[in-house]
Design a protein that fits this description.
single chain, 276 residues, mainly alpha, Four Helix Bundle (Hemerythrin (Met), subunit A), Helix Hairpins, 2 domains, 11 helices
Amino acid sequence: MNDRSDSAAPAGLRALAARWTESARFQTAIMSLIVLNAVILGLETFPGVMQRVGPWLLRADAALLAIFVVELLLKLIAQGARFFRSPWNLFDTVIIGIALLPTGGPLAVLRALRVLRVMRLVSAVPRMRAVVEALVQSLPGLGSIAMLLLIFFYVFSVMATKLFSAEFPQWFGTLWGSMFSLFQIMTLEGWAEIARAIMVSHPLAWIFFMTFILLATFTVLNLFIAVIVNAMQQPALAAADNAAASAATRQDVEALRAEIAALRRDLAARDAGRPG
């Protein structure tokens, strides 16, 4: 009897923890506490607020951290070994682990990292998780586009350094300086002033700058957006395809049932028409 009760207790505790952690009220409460923690961490940056209610804010921050630790323990009890197979659980564990590190001595800089707890909203809100997962899935495509953009930057930086370094060393004096200036031009921040200044001595320089902007800003950067949007649309398209396939399957099953019912009626009619 004792062995059975001992084995049933962990199972009952796991079921209870799973029921708590998976309930909508529990998840809403955790999200609310994460937002409250973000507000408290923001208030701690105001010296006037810290002078008046600083100790209370620190106590509230410590209490919220304790609640988050209990939440992780409940998830660990509920999910068991599956807890460590979830990237979002590992993400939450790292965030809370950083917050638990001592903030004195050489690790004092980690105190500023407590604000990372706000990032737990990403794992707590399903729609945010879907966006992050889509971004992760788009990384291979983004890497290829980044390499293409790097090639553009290198080619145009070499050209700009050779063309404009003698007269405009503040922008294109070195290869690295040219890459930084072209990055600024790619963001369209102050590019017209740079181009007009250079066009005083190089009237055809507008060809160089317009070509770079068209290739880097309006083409390559839009490819980044296209890859991300495509990655975010793929789950929706897959869900739509699955729904369409399920609907088609249901229609086929209903058609087969109708045919079987018709065959049964025919057989019943034939049996009824046979002479005894």
